[in-house]
Amino acid sequence: MDTSRTEPSAVVPRVSGATATGAVLACGAVSFFSWVKRDSDRACVKTDGLCWTWWDWAAIPLSLTTALVILIVVYKQLDIRPRLAIIPPTVLLAPFPLHAAQATAGWWAAAITGGAWSCSLALTAWTRYRTLGIASSAALLLASLIVAYR
Q1: CB 30 within 8 A of CB 105
Q2: Contact of 69 with 28, CB cutoff 8 Å
Q3: What is the pLDDT of residues 1-27, one digit of tens each?
Q4: Predicted TM-score (pTM) of this structure
Q5: Which residues, 6+ apart, have CB-to-CB distance to 134 below 8 Å?
Q6: In Å, how far from its chain's centre is CA 30?
C-alpha cells in the first residue's frame, strides 16, 4: 500500500464501502431516534410532568454500540487501518453533522452527510489522502456547528 501505483486503485473500493456504511448507519440512526421519539410521546401522553421511557435512556448507548460494532466489522472486511484511530472520531463526532443535516433538510440529508463523514475519516487511513480527509472532516464539522448554533 505504500507504492503510489497501487494505492489509488485499492483506496476507491474501500472508501466507497465506508461511504455506503456511513450512509446506511446515518439513515438507521435517524429512523431509530424518530421511532424512539414517537414511542416516548405515545407512552407519556397522559403525564403532566417529566416522563422517560426505557427507550429514552437506552437510545444513545444502543446506537453508539451498534455503530461501533458495524464499523469494526466493515472496516476489518475492507482492510481499513488503523481502525483505532478512525472509528472513535467517526462514532463520537458524527452526531454533530448528522443532527445539523437532519434538522435542516431531513433524513436524506443525514444519510448523505453520514456517507461524507465516513468517507472523509476513512481517507485519513492512507498517508497520501490524510490531509484531504482531515480537511474535509474538519469542514463538515465546522459547517455543522455553524448550522446547528446559528
Answers
A1: no
A2: no
A3: 454 554 556 889 999 999 999 999 999
A4: 0.86
A5: 124
A6: 11
Please classify residue 48 by burial: count the beta carbons closer than 10 Å to its beta carbon, then call 0-12 exposed, 13-18 middle and 19+ buried: exposed
| Cβ-contact 116, 100 below 8 angstroms | no
108-123 CB burial, b ≥16 within 10 A, e <16 = ebbbbbbbbbbbbbbb
Show the cell assigned to 20. Answer: 455506503
In single-letter form, the type of residue at position 54 comes to: W
pLDDT tens digits for range 106-123: 999 999 999 999 999 999
Question: What angle (nearest 5°) sits at the alpha carbon of residue 26, between those of residues 100 and 129?
Answer: 85
Residue 123 corresponds to which cell in the numbers above?
A: 481517507
Does residue 23 contact residue 112 with C-beta atoms inside 8 Å? yes
Helices H / strands E in the chain, number of each:
6, 0
Distance CA 82, CA 122 (A): 10
How far is the CA of 108 from the CAs of 88, 105, 132, 142, in angstroms? Answer: 24, 7, 24, 20
